[in-house]
Structures are given as C-alpha cells and as structure tokens.
Amino acid sequence: MAKIDRFKRTPISNQDPVIRSTNFEEVCLGYTEEEAVQEAKRCLQCPNPTCVPGCPVAIDIPGFINHIANREFAEAAHVLADYTALPAVCGRVCPQEDQCEKVCILAKKGEAIAIGKLERFAADWARENGVEVGKTKPGNGHKIAIIGSGPSGVTCAGELAKEGYDVTIFEALHEPGGVLVYGIPEFRLPKEKVVKPEIENVKKLGVKIETNVIVGRTVTIDSLFEEGFEAVYVGSGAGLPIFMNIPGENLNGVFSANEFLTRNNLMKAFREDYETPIKVGKRVAVVGGGNVAMDAARTAKRLGADVYIVYRRTEAELPARLEEVHHAMEEGINFEFLTNPIEITGNEKGWVNGIKCVRMELGEPDASGRRRPVEIKGSEFEFEVETVIMALGTSPNPLIASTTDGLQTNKRQGIIVDEGGHTTREGVFAGGDAVTGSATVILAMGAGKDAAKTIDKYIKEKNS
C-alpha cells in the first residue's frame, strides 16, 4: 500500500472525457479495495465527529469508515444499513462537499475524507458479494401508505418496515425509484446495477410497491384511509416543471429538463433498441445552472449535439455540484455565463431555430444572498440552436393537495408541514420535494427518515 498522506485524498479513476462523452456508462469507476482502505486510514476517528451532524440522515461515518480501514467491508455495509436505505445511490449523487465533507476536520488543513466515495465502495462491495443487510422487528399489525417511491418515500417506508409496520408504497410511474430512475442519467447513477438492487433491499424488509397508481386519480388519500391505512406519507416529489414565460416556449423542440431526462432515463430514448422518440439536433441550449442542467447538457452531448449551458450568473454562482461542472467542462460542454434568454425563435413550420439572449452583470445581493443579475442594455444577441431545454427547477404537482380535504399548501404548491412532517390533515404526513420543491436526494431522505419517527410516535400514541 502507498504511503498515506493524511491531508491528501486518494485519487479515484474516471472514464476518459473524450470516450465517456460518447457513451452512457458510469463516469466514476470507484475505489478498488486497496484504494478504499488507503483512503479510510486517513480518517482521524474523531471522538466528537463533526461529519455526522453534517449528514441529513446522521450516518455513523467514523464507524463505517473504520470498518473499511480494517478491511471489514461487510461490517461497513451493515453500519450504513442502520442509517440509510440508499447507500450506493447517496455515495454517487449526494453533495457531500456541502455536507459531511465540508465539516471534516482534515478539510481545515488539506482535503476532507472522501466520505461519499467510501460509502459507495462499501455499498457496492456488499451488493457484489451478496451481503444481506437490514433487520426488521416482528409485525405490529399497523398499515401505513406511502405515496411515491423516490428517495423520501423509500426511506420512510424502510424505516417504518424496520419497526414492524405493514407498509405499501403507491407509485404513479411503471417503475419504482422516482427521480432516481427518471431524473438522474445512467452515467451518474446506473439503474440495473445500483437503483434496482437498493429498491429490492427495501422490498426485502417487507415493503410492498404498487406501480401505475396515481393518487388523486386512481385512488385518493381518503380511499386509502377507508382501506385501513392508519397514516399516509406523501413523498410524491416535485415533477411540475418551471418555465420562463418568454416568447417561443411553445415551439417544437423546447423541452423541460424533466421531460427530456425522463424520455432518456426512464424510457431509454438513448438506446437504439427502444422506440421512445427524442429530438436533439446538432445544437442544444440548456437554460439553468443546477445539477439537472448539467445532467440534461451531458445527456444531449452523448446524443451527439454541440451543447451550450446558458446561465445568468457567473461560474462562481453555479448551484450545481463542483464535480458535475468539472465533468461537464471536461466533456466539452460550452458555458455561456452572464447570459439570459429573452426569446426562442422558430421557423415557418413551428420548430426551434434559435435563441435570443442578453448579457448580464451582477448587481447587489438578492434574497438568496447571491448578487442579482442585471440586464446590460443593448447587449442582445442570437445564436442558432435546434433544441432548447429549460432546467429552471420544478415545483410539486398540485393534484394530491387539490383532491384531499384539509391538506394545505403554500404559494409554491408545497405541502405545509410542521417540524415532524405532520400536515394540516390528521394522519397525513409529507416530506421531501413535495414540501420544499426540488432539492437534493439526501435532504429528501432526511425528511423521510424524520417523518417515519413522527408516524411511529403518532400510531403508538393513537393506540395507547
């Protein structure tokens, strides 16, 4: 084993940018056993670890890393299973640099422990070596309904199943996984290799999943209570795309990032053996600067397009993960910073042929704390594109709230909850993007985990 530099992270291998920009195989290749052990041995095993409070699901980070350092890989996976239902997912898509790794003691003088990459390693090793994880208490006879099989719903379901509850998840789409299957591309999160096995682990806890069930249409929350469910958790996510309301957004060739990614990820439009239609063209503009914008841009690149990310602030303000921005730049994505669209133009047949933009400059900070972009007068310009993808965020679909008496929402259609996740309707709980609007996988998981504790307390008090 190489000599350990306490303040320098063990490098990790990635696909070559030129090669990976033409395929949908996973970009990051992960740690080998030797690399994982070397990185784990950097951990100081702090008596009062600052990393744990930085994790939304409070994983015993020093605990699982110590097992890896001692080559006890199965034990590391068991520690993770006590805290998270989706370790292989989180190890790939969590913004660790803004959470657990940000507050790692080593980050003060060097590079933080690669907590996310080690979590991925332990989860992958367990899957590849057939390690069974997760324990449940005897059944308690109480039925709980979960709406949505994304990160929040799956986490809540898993936590309740461990406590002996009879849990059923109702999923609107034909495959479980929520944003993990429709939103995040294969090259970041493989579906067959990673997502499906982790969903299967939750089912092994006794959780039942019913697909093609649209709550608010197929069934209602009221009908679920009538069927004997004693509590309902709404983890339906935020699938309603946001647009700019500029001229030309109704032209053919304008996509929401949600639709574009769903066609490619869930419906496999990138594969020749699937008939899902998708139009990309030679030049694509992606409007936005978050992780979803990076995913859409990098997907379009792999489909053969020359891609431009149009973002109204500077590189320093990009909300996307640094790793995703770095990978996008390596793959040849073009960035048009301090640029804002004002119109999408089309031809006589109604298809996109260009996008009109203005240059921006940064003014005083706005409510988010970032400097507000201000239009530069007379800076209009236009460039040719055949496709425009709007990646401006999403809001919760109002369907569930509009078909459930007593369920209040805020002005952004987010379901109103108290600190424990209880809504304004008795017995109904909610969390994740259905409450906050589009956020991260791990924050949704944290909300699901917190709500599971609240639901457990609610059921026990109700039946005491």
The biggest sheet amounts to: 5 strands, parallel
- What is the count of distinct domains? 3
Average pLDDT level: 95
State the distance separating the first and last CA atoms.
57 Å
Instruction: Please give the CATH architecture of the largest domain.
Output: 3-Layer(bba) Sandwich
Strand content: 15-25%
The helix content is 25-40%
Please state the CA-atom Rg, rounded to the nearest Å: 23 Å
SS-derived structural category: alpha/beta
Number of helices: 16
CATH class of the largest domain: Alpha Beta
Query: Could you please say which CATH topology of the largest domain applies here?
Result: FAD/NAD(P)-binding domain
How many individual β-strands?
16
Name the CATH superfamily classification of the largest domain: FAD/NAD(P)-binding domain
Strand order, sheet with most strands = 3-2-1-4-16
Note the overall shape: globular
State the gist of this model.
With 464 residues, this protein is of the alpha/beta class. The protein contains 16 helices and 16 strands.
Please describe what this structure looks like.
- The chain contains 16 helices and 16 strands.
- 49% of the residues are buried.
- The termini are far apart.
- The protein is α/β, with parallel strands linked by helices.
- The strands form four sheets. A five-stranded parallel β-sheet has the order 3-2-1-4-16.
- The longest helix is centred in the C-terminal third of the chain and has 22 residues, at 441-462.
- 32% of the residues lie in helices and 16% in strands.
- Helix 13 (322-330) links the parallel strand 8 and strand 9 (334-336).
- The protein has helices spanning 17-20, 33-40, 61-69, 73-81, 87-93, 115-128, 151-162, 179-182, 191-204, 221-226, 257-265, 291-302, 322-330, 399-402, 433-436, 441-462, and strands spanning 143-147, 166-170, 208-210, 231-234, 240-241, 254-256, 283-287, 306-310, 334-336, 339-346, 352-365, 371-375, 381-383, 387-390, 394-395, 428-430.
- It is globular, with a radius of gyration of 23 Å.
- The chain has three domains: 17-128, Alpha-helical ferredoxin (Fumarate Reductase Iron-sulfur Protein, Chain B, domain 2, Orthogonal Bundle); 143-239 and 395-462, FAD/NAD(P)-binding domain, CATH 3.50.50.60; 243-392, FAD/NAD(P)-binding domain.
